[in-house]
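Suppose you are handed a protein chain with no further information: no name, no annotation, nothing but its sequence. What can you learn? This example shows the usual starting point.
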Amino acid sequence: MSKPGFFAGLALGLIAGILIAPKSGQETRSDLKERSRNWIDIAENLAEEAWDRIDDKRKGFRPSNPMEDESDPQETKSF
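A reasonable first move is to predict its three-dimensional structure. Written in structure tokens, the prediction is:
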């Protein structure tokens, strides 16, 4: 199955499910708003975790610098 075909079927199934749902339009819209807020919260949390991991990796990264060999080893550097 091709990806475009899969996503088209998924979208059509979602739309059909919403249209024939036993809830009123107002209830369905309310549910969709709540679900979208939940997905936004999940996405924000995942993005925050990703940035934290990237920041942790960045702090642990120390590029090799040929000039460091000539510097005083007691000297501390901050990035």
